[in-house]
Design a protein that fits this description.
This protein is an alpha+beta fold. It folds into six domains: about 55 residues, no CATH class; about 70 residues, OB fold (Dihydrolipoamide Acetyltransferase, E2P), CATH 2.40.50; about 70 residues, Nucleic acid-binding proteins (OB fold (Dihydrolipoamide Acetyltransferase, E2P), Beta Barrel); about 300 residues, no CATH class; about 55 residues, no CATH class; about 120 residues, OB fold (Dihydrolipoamide Acetyltransferase, E2P). The protein is about 30% helix and about 25% strand. A hairpin with a 5-residue loop joins strand 19 and strand 20. It is globular. The N and C termini lie far apart (about 90 Å).
Length: about 750
């Protein structure tokens, strides 16, 4: 067995070899191979936690020393004319080291604020107050030109760019030779050109012409470019995809005899999960059920080290828009070989779950198999069949296929109720388009029992995948959702108390406590307020190689396993299962294990990127839909509070609009960041998240997705108008902290009035 080096030996190696500090380099230096690398990783992590080492991407170093190549910021020359620089990534506990820049004749002139990449050398016999390192220039670091999307406006010489980003308020100027022959009114992508004139507009050059911005199909295209989402597959990726062939049975378990079905939305673009259930015939499990969850075996077609894999990692996930999808995988895979089409043999990784009569999973078994779907059904079809209204396709499946699924779901739902995951009730809206891509309306998405059935079975499979890999002690990516911060909980508690509800303090927060709060509000005027405020108190879920549990689902072990066509995280989990069970050579490679942390961070970021792009696209579609109703009045709720105004979510469409603070009457409003409120200094009016409001649509800009609103009433009471409005009389129900501040302001105003 290979001996793991001691911590002093590792520190000595890093000190003597500052350029060979990756885990791979350390393992090679001490002859560590195979499973012993896991022990080395544990030792390095212990040293990192103890502060003996700092992890910098894939390498380690002593945190009290600067790396041999560092990014520095040049300081102003000192009294002697020497040029010093400060390290931008100092993490030591001692004083920041002094770095003297030693220029060569060929080096460019440097000034205060310049950033450089430099090679550092220790100063022998450094004295107090003197330099600790000398730096030699490798290169001056330039700034990546800023890019924006905008509308090109032609002028006599060149043109101007009107940015489409809601947060941008500056125009850009394009010189005559930098327009790429763009036409007036055309959507273009530009990048900054040269330095900005302090008194003029920033200069730009057109780098891409994207067509008519008013075209209905341009909306998602804008988001794709604006958020940098890759939407064109490189030729080598497409060649690899086209070369793939369907998997044969080989050593796989033959599951084609099972009456398996897929259940998806009517407009599903891919089918990566299938299900089957039946009563458990084991006499030791009376009233129990067996549930099969079968997932497309994407790992068979997307292998580590291929161009397909690199592109899937780069994209991280698929991105869905109302009019198109930007897939993680080419259509040859996502829409064909990896899609579980009806009547076609398909490779899968499946889990057989045994549930007892109370819905608890008492055992599970994973297998790599070959399956064949008996029917591709929609949620609506399955629900209608379960409700006694089968159609020609579902009628033959009711007794032997659909009814057993619902029977198993009934006990699984009982176990879910006992577990008490967070049960938010927020209606989900869908932008509806016609064949030409124009918005025809906004509809609420139906929430059928069939949706909950598939959701619950997928959760059970995800838990089983995490537990299986933990049992086998194999690295994986967890789906992590941490509990809310104390600050967000305090804000939620204040809103609850001001609304007449209770969220007790001094206890370890569990989802059942939040569900109790939501049940108190159910059916009251504060129902939507409490659901919205609870949602805002939640942290954002992410991926990590360490397990911190999933607070929202009230689960200790959770991983994403059920959607490998559209999420890279699931592909990682599939590969981990393949390696852990010895199912083939296309599992998780040692190189992938080493960079799990990097992968987790990257795909968490691509997920947020897609969410932002999807949200911006919906905003633009909704703005286009509402642009013909400018001047109309709408009901809504305050969904956000900032120092520059209020965000309001409109009840009918779910669109978010801004009420600028300058339009809120004739008084000054104080912003309380902790309470998330605005308070008028004259009337004492407090505006906070969740309050019911009536607004007038003042402006709708489809190209940016921006809506400007005018506040008319709060909690059914009109706003006080003009300086003669009675002070202190306008007091719709408000959060407790805001109410206390309002009372204090009114008392102060009254004392001042009395002299």
């Amino acid at each position: 067995m290979t001996d793991i080096p001691s911590k002093p030996e590792i520190l000595a190696w890093i000190a003597e070899n500052p350029t060979l500090t990756a885990k791979r380099d350390i393992a090679r230096a001490f002859g560590i191979k195979g499973a012993a690398r896991i022990d080395l990783k544990r030792v390095l992590r212990e040293m990192e936690d103890a502060g003996d080492l700092e992890k910098r991407r894939k390498t380690y170093r002593d945190p009290e020393r600067l790396p041999p190549v560092s990014v520095l910021e040049v300081l102003a020359p000192d009294a002697a004319g020497d040029l010093f620089a400060r390290p931008l990534e100092w993490r030591g506990e001692g004083r920041e080291p002094r770095v003297l820049f030693v220029a060569r004749k060929s080096d460019p002139a440097l000034g205060e604020g310049d950033r450089i990449l430099a090679r550092l050398h220790d100063v022998e016999g450094a004295t107090p107050g003197g330099p600790d390192y000398e730096a030699r220039l490798i290169r001056k670091i330039g700034v990546t030109p800023r890019r924006i999307l905008g509308i090109f406006r032609a002028e006599t010489e060149g043109g101007r760019i009107l940015p489409i980003d809601k947060g941008a308020d500056k125009e850009w100027r394009v010189a005559a030779g930098a327009t790429q022959n763009a036409r007036d009114g055309e959507l273009v992508e530009v990048e900054q050109a040269g330095s900005r004139n302090r008194l003029g507009l920033p200069q730009a050059r057109v780098i891409a012409r994207l067509g008519d911005p008013s075209g209905p199909r341009a909306v998602s295209l804008i988001a794709i470019h604006q958020h940098g989402i890759p939407d064109q597959f490189p030729p080598e990726v497409l060649r690899e995809a086209e070369a793939e062939r369907p998997a044969d049975l080989g050593s796989r378990e033959d599951l084609r005899h099972l009456p398996i079905i897929t259940i998806d939305p009517a407009d599903a673009r891919d089918r990566d999960d299938a299900v089957h259930a039946h009563a458990d015939d084991d006499p030791k499990n009376p009233g129990g059920h067996v549930v099969w969850v079968l997932i497309a075996d994407v790992a068979h077609h997307v292998r580590p080290g291929t161009a397909l894999d690199r592109e899937a990692w780069n994209r991280g996930n698929s991105t869905y828009f109302p009019d198109r999808v930007v897939p993680m995988l080419p259509d040859r895979l996502s829409g064909d070989l990896c899609s579980l089409h009806e009547g076609v043999p398909r490779a899968c990784i499946a889990v057989r779950l045994r549930l007892d009569a109370h819905g608890k999973v008492i055992s599970h078994r994973f297998t790599r198999g070959l399956m064949q779907s008996q029917a591709a059904l929609t949620y609506e079809q399955v629900q209608a069949a379960a409700d006694g209204r089968p159609d020609a396709q579902t009628a033959p499946l009711v007794d032997q296929v659909i009814a057993p699924l619902y029977a198993a779901y009934k006990v699984a739902a009982a176990a879910r109720e006992h577990r008490q995951p967070l049960d938010l009730d927020l209606p989900e809206r869908r932008v509806e388009l016609d064949a030409d891509g124009n918005v025809t309306g906004v509809a609420f998405k139906d929430r059928l029992e069939a949706h909950r059935l598939i959701e619950e079975f997928m959760i059970l499979a995800n838990v089983a995948a995490a537990e299986e890999l933990r049992r086998l002690r194999h690295p994986l990516l967890y789906r992590v959702h941490e509990e809310p911060s104390p600050e967000k909980l305090d804000a939620l508690r204040e809103v609850a108390q001001a609304s007449g509800f209770t969220l007790a303090k001094g206890q370890v927060l569990q989802t059942r406590h939040l569900n109790n709060l939501l049940s108190q509000a159910e059916g009251t005027a504060f129902d939507e307020l409490m659901n919205m405020t609870t949602l805002r108190s939640m942290t954002q879920a992410y991926y990590a190689p360490e397990n911190f549990g999933h607070f929202g689902l009230a689960l200790q072990n959770y991983a994403h396993f059920t959607s490998p066509i559209r999420r890279y995280a699931d592909l990682v989990v599939h590969r981990a299962l393949i390696t852990a069970h010895g199912w083939g050579k296309d599992g998780l490679s040692p190189q992938e294990v080493e960079r799990l942390e990097e992968t987790a961070k990257h795909i968490s970021e691509t997920e947020r990127r897609s969410m932002a792009a999807e949200r911006d696209t919906n905003d633009r579609y909704l703005a286009a839909y509402l642009s013909e109703r400018v001047g109309s009045e709408f009901d809504g709720r305050i969904s956000g509070v900032t120092r520059f105004g209020l965000f309001v979510r409109l009840a009918d469409t779910g669109a978010d609009g801004l009420i600028p603070i300058r339009t809120l009457g004739r008084e000054y409003f104080h912003f309380d960041a902790n309470a998330q409120t605005l308070m008028g200094d004259t009337t004492g009016l407090v505006l906070g998240i969740g309050q019911r409001v009536t607004v007038r649509l003042a402006e709708a800009v489809p190209v940016t997705g921006g809506l400007m609103l005018e506040l008319l009433a709060v909690e059914g009471k009109d706003l006080p108008q003009g300086p003669k409005a009675a002070r202190g009389r306008f007091n719709p129900r408000m959060p407790a902290r805001g109410k206390a501040k309002a009372d204090k302001t009114r008392r102060k105003a009254e004392r001042k009035r009395r002299g």
